[in-house]
Q: What sequence folds into this?
């Protein structure tokens, strides 16, 4: 059995700027958080976007309710444990908080994932939410690129600007250094369109990051590397 199959895929980070202060811990396989996780973060499993089960612990508090809802859905259906807290300059608007949280989430994802050795690398999924249907396709490419078409028409959903929703996905792809395509294929309710997109992304990420039996130690690339 290779070491990649037993090494915990987790990370904890803090990202502070003049605009946002973020603390985060993630485990891509669910379960516990890394031992260096800030004790106050690990203890703050509360709020509307919080959920604890035998396989996952999720707590998201960004100060933007709909963003919390989307990241909760992402973590739940990707199979992650995720603790995330952000204090941002929401007196200005939602931009810095939403962008920085998703960049930091991408950083944490990349740090937790480490090498793509032995992994599926590619993942795709469809996810419905009532009348809405979205498709997500992911490549653990180490080449950050994103195309996101959600077709949202409202100005805001809750306190999150609709223009920030695709930007959040783009920011995650940038921080995570993945290639990401997300399209909402149909739907008339913007809440449903956005949520189905995050759920499709979650399932696609779960597939892409899955370990492939018999491929331990192998790089899933014709180049022989995904680090250059």
A:
């Amino acid at each position: 059995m290779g070491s990649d199959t037993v090494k915990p895929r987790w990370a904890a980070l803090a990202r502070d700027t003049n605009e946002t202060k973020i603390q985060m811990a993630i485990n891509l396989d669910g379960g516990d958080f890394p031992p260096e996780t800030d004790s106050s973060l690990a203890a703050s499993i509360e709020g509307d976007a919080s959920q604890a089960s035998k396989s996952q612990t999720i707590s998201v508090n960004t100060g933007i309710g709909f963003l919390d809802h989307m990241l909760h859905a992402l973590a739940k259906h990707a199979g992650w444990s995720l603790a995330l807290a952000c204090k941002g300059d929401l007196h200005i608007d939602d931009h810095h908080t939403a962008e920085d949280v998703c960049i930091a989430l991408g950083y944490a994802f990349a740090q937790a994932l480490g090498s793509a050795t032995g992994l599926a690398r590619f993942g795709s999924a469809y996810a419905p939410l009532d009348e809405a249907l979205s498709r997500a396709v992911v490549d653990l490419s180490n080449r950050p690129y994103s195309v996101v078409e959600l077709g949202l028409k409202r100005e805001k959903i809750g306190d999150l600007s609709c223009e920030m929703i695709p930007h959040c996905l783009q920011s995650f792809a940038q921080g995570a250094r993945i290639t990401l395509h997300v399209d909402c294929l149909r739907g008339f309710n913007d809440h449903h369109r956005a949520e189905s997109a995050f759920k499709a992304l979650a399932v696609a990420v779960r597939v892409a990051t899955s370990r492939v039996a018999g491929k331990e130690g192998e790089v899933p690339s014709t180049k022989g590397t995904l680090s250059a």
User: Anything to note?
Assistant: The helical segments are 39-42, 65-78, 95-113, 164-176, 190-208. Residues 3-208 form a domain with the Ribosomal Protein S5; domain 2 fold (CATH 3.30.230.40). The longest helix spans residues 95-113. Residues 1-5 have pLDDT under 50 and may be disordered.
